[in-house]
Design goal:
With about 850 residues, the protein is mainly beta. The protein contains 1 helix and 56 strands. The protein has a 24-stranded antiparallel barrel. It has a 7-stranded mixed β-sheet with strand order 5-6-4-3-2-8-7, with helices on one face.
């Protein structure tokens, strides 16, 4: 295809140029950029073309001077099969030169040591200095086809598209009270009845500044003397939270929980906390993304297969390319690239990858800093605190395969310092290790705690083993003085998925304490799908300690239609036997009532349970009755929320996440909700509460236009809002009310108005601003009318005014009105 052509007044030279523009090139292997993950790709089918130069053809880095001044030629350019526009070339000494911006536009790498030449104030560089250069001239069309080796092109990097953070909707100032009442009454055989009324509540206030919440509980509100529970309220947690979504950080004041690292424990405390919070950016990927690479000889389509499943298709230009926009994965596997060029030729490249969600991407940090006093007896007392402390945790992604972790604690009674790491190891293993040193300020003693672990995951197999231990004098924050640490504990499990044959797993755990004997647990489980919606699980466990015990279990679950499930369970533990069946229906969009029935035997005793639940727009009501030979128990529940927002008061569902106030002014009983679940209905003022919205995400709120009057006009039936955490947003649907009528218009000559004339409502407060066309027989259907109206008819740059009074009929009726006279318009 690339042959020698002749041009007048140009001599044929050997060496760099063969023919006029038939220039032989060289292909030199170059490594891919350092950002590409090291791999050993295997190439099959059509291999990439390789051009081998002879020593005489190797381009020189410096061009010898020549007296020939040269000339300029404008040529249409095609580079490796792709059109590259029209460029001005310099022909000089039988060599072809191009300006630097041409190389940049073609993505062709020019050796920095190659010297250019100046011609008429412009610097030009030789094309012969580029790897694998060949050319084919078409003198008639004044065009040239250029061919370069694929390695001569700059690498293309297909990066993961950055997720644009949605703009947070304005926060409404609001206050709410979540309540959950529970009443229980138990009748024991041969004993007096026991009854208890309890409350779990939460007060909240949200504004642009943040969210303030206070949770509390109260037991034995009936003051039953048979219960040893005091009948006073107990404060649980009081916290002010301020999120900074643009920085993925959260600031808290009040009651909170410390973050633990690889080692250690979370501790309730009262104080301040400032921490990284990636949940403020839903979809943000914190783990390293595998990078796969390849090379294309021409513009191509690349199909990416992960473990033989097509994940994405991309288009790449000529040259090396890397893909680091793979979907989020965990574990190891194989990535297969199918590179298909414009001629249908395929190149297949296969390389393995390894990643894990516990690793952090290179340069990414995750941290938390806390200071305050340790909280004691949460749930039993309202405010018992221990000594003060300061605690800091820092995790840093060093490389794609190494994440470092450090944690330090300074407290009145103890100091600790921890270092650890999570690393990708050979054979696709994930290793974790950490060590913590402690110092007891009271007696000056010290101790250590350590952890090592290995994890291996493939598409069908998962293996995990971890060992942890501590010296006898090791102490940590929040630990009771009389509690000794665990001497050593070991946990290991292995699972294997056999596709259609089910999955099998084995587990082992051992615990050795300084003040008790060793305890070992052996377990095995097997689960398999039965039919389309059934799942059968078998399990066996053996505990070996001071007393050895063995248990075996069976569980079968089947999903039925209408959100119903059937569950059959059996278990044997020594002399105790369980065998029972449960049939249940959970509430769903078309049915707000759920129920559950259990019958069978538990712990060798017959047992019967029946429960029902109603999940409504204003809360939930539950009732549960259970009966055994020795006890009958009745439990009743009521939960929901009281909300004060936008100057209005609402009774609604329990507010666990964000919420919205949807307003369809003046229209009651109109369905609104998220997506197609329009299960909330506006009240007589046209307002409804949507209680379950996702924070910091786009929430599509829709209304049901079929439930609006026929004469109502709505600008849009869907709006997108982004609420802050546990805060409210307002969603207004501008709906215009009006009436419709079929009007007949006549001119002064008594004939009907011509088809095509326009009628508009020109009242200042008109519902509709659009124009309506006059149809045949001078009739026009006009909507958005009120009882009294002023209309304008336009025809051939002429206008007339029409006064219209609608008759008193039903709002959804369309009366025929007319003829109405339109004066002073000529046809």
């Amino acid at each position: 295809m690339y042959s020698t052509h002749s041009l007048s007044k140009i001599k044929t030279l050997s060496g760099v140029i063969t023919g006029v523009l038939g220039i032989a090139g060289a292909s030199v292997a170059q490594p891919l950029p350092s950002s590409v993950v090291a791999a050993k790709p295997s190439v099959s089918r059509a291999a990439l073309p390789t051009i081998t130069p002879t020593p005489a053809e190797a381009p020189s880095s410096k061009l010898a001077p020549n007296a020939d001044a040269g000339k300029l030629r404008a040529l249409d350019v095609v580079v490796n099969g792709s059109k590259a526009g029209t460029w001005l070339f310099l022909e000089r000494n039988d060599n072809l030169f191009a300006p630097r911006d041409a190389f940049d536009d073609w993505r062709v790498q020019l050796n920095k040591d190659v010297a250019g030449i100046m011609f008429k104030g412009q610097e030009y560089f030789p094309l012969a200095s580029v790897l694998g250069y060949k050319a084919k001239l078409n003198a008639l069309s004044q065009s040239v086809d250029l061919l370069f080796a694929p390695a001569a092109f700059s690498a293309t990097r297909l990066q993961q598209e950055l997720i644009k953070k949605p703009v947070i909707s304005p926060v409404m100032t609001s206050a709410f009270l979540n309540y959950d009442f529970n009443y229980a009454r138990s009748s024991f055989k041969g004993a007096p009845n026991v009854q208890d009324l309890g409350l779990l509540g939460e007060l909240g206030f949200s504004s642009q500044m943040g969210v303030l919440t206070n949770s509390f509980t109260a037991r034995n509100l009936t003051r039953n003397t048979a219960l040893s529970v005091p009948s006073r309220p107990i404060r649980l947690e009081t916290t002010f939270t301020r999120d900074f979504p643009d920085k993925n950080t959260t600031f808290r004041v009040g009651d909170s929980v410390t973050r633990s690292g690889l080692l250690g424990r979370s501790v309730y405390f009262a104080g301040v906390q400032f921490a990284r919070n990636f949940s403020l950016s839903p979809g943000y990927v914190t783990q390293p993304i595998p990078v796969v690479s390849g090379i294309s000889a021409a513009p191509s389509t690349v199909e990416l297969y992960i473990n033989d499943v097509l994940r994405q298709t991309s288009k790449v230009p000529t040259g090396p390319f890397t893909l680091d926009n793979l979907p989020t994965l965990t574990g190891n596997g194989d990535a297969r690239l199918v590179v298909r060029d414009l001629l249908g030729r395929e190149t297949i490249i296969t390389q393995s990858f390894f990643t894990n969600g516990r690793l952090l991407a290179t340069g990414l940090s995750d941290w938390s800093f806390e200071a305050g006093r340790v909280r004691r007896d949460l749930g039993n007392t309202s405010g018992r605190y221990g000594g003060g402390f300061a605690n800091g945790l820092w995790r840093q992604g060093i490389t794609p395969q190494l994440t470092f972790e450090g944690r330090a604690t300074l407290a009145t009674q103890v100091k600790t310092l921890q270092v650890g790491a999570i690393a990708g190891l050979p054979f696709d293993l994930l290793g974790s290790s950490a060590v913590t040193a402690s110092h007891d300020n009271r007696n000056g003693s010290g101790g250590t705690e350590w952890l090592v672990g290995l994890e291996h995951r493939t598409l069908n197999t998962s293996t995990y083993i971890q060992s942890q231990g501590a010296s006898q004098r090791f102490r940590q924050l929040g630990e009771e003085d009389n509690l000794k640490p665990t001497k050593q504990q070991l946990a290991a499990n292995w699972t294997r998925n056999f596709d259609e044959s089910g999955s099998f797993g084995l587990g082992y755990a051992a615990t050795m304490r300084y003040d008790s004997p060793k305890t070992e647990t052996f377990s095995a489980n097997y689960s398999v799908r039965v039919g389309e919606t059934g799942m059968l699980s078998l399990s066996a466990n053996r505990v070996r300690a001071e007393v050895t015990a063995t248990s075996v279990g069976l569980n079968f679950t089947m999903q039925l239609d209408k959100n119903r499930t059937v569950n059959i369970a059996g278990n044997s533990r020594g002399d105790n036997r369980d065998l029972y069946a449960v049939v249940a229906q959970n509430p769903y969009m078309d049915n707000q009532v759920g129920w559950r029935v259990l019958a069978g035997q538990q712990q060798n005793r017959s047992r019967f349970e029946a429960a029902t639940q109603y999940q409504g727009q204003r809360g939930a009501v539950t009732a549960d009755l259970s009966r055994t030979p020795n006890q009958t128990a009745l439990r009743l529940g009521l939960n929901g929320a009281l909300l004060l927002a936008d100057g209005d008061f609402f009774v609604t569902q329990r507010l666990r996440d964000s919420f919205g106030i949807a307003e369809v002014t003046g229209f009651g009983e109109v369905g609104v909700g998220l997506g197609s679940a329009m299960t909330n209905y506006t009240n007589d003022r046209g307002v409804a509460v949507i209680a379950r919205m996702s924070p910091y995400q786009n929430n599509q709120v829709r209304l049901n236009p079929a439930e609006l009057p026929l004469t109502a006009e709505v600008d849009s039936i869907e709006q997108t809002v982004v609420p802050a955490w546990r805060s409210g947003v307002k969603i207004s649907f501008p709906v215009h009310s009006g009436r419709g009528a079929l009007l007949k218009i006549v001119f002064d000559d008594g004939e009907v108005a011509p088809a095509g004339a326009l009628i508009s409502i020109n009242d200042a407060g008109a519902v509709s601003k659009e124009a309506f066309y006059v149809a045949r027989r001078g009739e026009a259907f006009v909507t958005g009318l009120q009882t009294k109206n002023r209309l304008t008819l336009s025809w051939k740059d002429q206008r007339c005014q029409i006064e219209l009074d609608l008759p008193p009929v039903k709002a959804d009726d369309f009366p025929r009105v007319g003829p109405l006279r339109c004066s002073n318009i000529k046809r």
